[in-house]
Amino acid sequence: MPEADNKQAKQFHPEIPQPTHGFFAKGAGALDWGMQHRLSRIFRPETGKVVMLAIDHGYFQGPTTGLERVDLNIVPLLEQTDALMLTRGILRSTIPPTYPRGIVMRCSGGPSILKELSNEELAVDVEDAIRMNVAAMTLQVFVGGEHETRTIHNMTRLVDAGLRYGIPVMAVTAVGRELVRDAKYLRLACRICAELGTQMVKTYYCDEDFETVTASCPVPIVMAGGKKLPELDALTMAYNAIQGGAAGVDMGRNIFQSDAPMAMLQAIRKIVHEGYTPKEAMEVYAELKNEQAREKREPVGIG
Ligand code: R5P
User: Fold this and answer.
1) Best substitution site from 55, 57, 61, 258 to test ligand 1's pocket, by max atoms within 8 Å of Cβ?
2) What's the pLDDT at 144?
3) Does the beta carbon of 104 lie inside 6 Å of ligand 1?
4) Residue 226 in contact with ligand 1 by CB distance below 6 A
5) Nearest CA, atom 5, ligand 1
6) What pLDDT sits at residue 174?
7) In the predicted model, is pLDDT for residue 303 greater than 50?
8) Ligand 1 centroid to 21 CA: how many Å?
């Protein structure tokens, strides 16, 4: 039988009010604990931002340059990522389950690069997302595309499934070669995704008025990378997006197709989490690139 409680020894601290915690992510204050916890595995609570690595390209374009061997080229980069966007196939087959950060799982698919890209369906059951303990689910939304309504409907069904189990959804919008990705279009596309319930949106940067895109979207916007640019241009784009109100970046080719992917990732982190300018980040990139090349030539411990 337990001993009778000794009130004197208990630490109730009636003089200290229990704090009520707010939540750092934009528009996420009214979400349930599980959703907020998952968002904290994507966005760093200390800065409110994310450096996400996108490696989901294979779901419609096969073994993309730089992703031929995810085990060799991508796994060593994971330690410098805050979140990873990928398909369940690569997740199960290749990513160590010890990866401690957020998994953002691609849940749409259908057409390959040989066909009309907007002709997508949901391609993952929410049960599998739960099984994989993902931090978020993601899909493409083609506003203005041939199958616009279908992709929006995919999104709302995924949002409903996510709300049922506390899993946020990130819509990816503005995909398509023929699109004019100006602020007017991006405002429209991002706002539609947020209005219909996604907890975050991934979209492209535009040179003019990007801040109106982030300001008019009530949930965090994460900048998409796009085709490979020279390193300084990619760093400048990331910097401008962050200064324009983006809550981070989700870049693929500009990282894994760089001459020095690890150095590039580290330089991007400096921009996103520490406010480095493109010039300062470029110096970090150049220095780390040389250092890492030296280490490859002369591995530590081999004398
Ligand atoms: C865009 O269509 C997809 O979500 C990707 O496969 C990917 O996220 C693109 O990344 P990036 O354009 O930075 O290479």
Assistant:
1) 57
2) 92
3) no
4) yes
5) 57
6) 78
7) no
8) 35
Nearest to 158 by CA among 187, 124, 184, 182: 124
pLDDT: which is higher, 177 or 262: 262
167 Cα: distance to centroid of ligand 1 (angstroms): 21
pLDDT over 80 at 6, yes or no: no
Phi, psi of 187 (to 5 degrees): -60, -45
Q: Is 202 a catalytic residue?
A: yes
pTM of the model: 0.94
* 176, pLDDT greater than 80: no
DSSP string, 28-77: -TTS-HHHHHHHHTTSBTTTTBEEEEE--THHHHSS-TT-TTHHHHTGGG
Dist. CA 127–CA 69, nearest whole Å: 28
CB distance 166 to ligand 1 below 6 Å: no
Rounded CA-CA distance 256/269 in Å is 15
Domains of the chain: 30-259 (3.20.20.70)
pLDDT at 129 over 80: yes
Q: Which of 7, 26, 49, 202 is labelled catalytic?
A: 202
Say yes or no: CB of residue 56 within 6 Å of ligand 1.
Answer: yes
How remote is the CA of residue 54 from the centroid of ligand 1, in Å? 6
Instruction: Kindly state the percentage of the chain with pLDDT values over 90.
Output: 88
Average pLDDT, the chain: 94
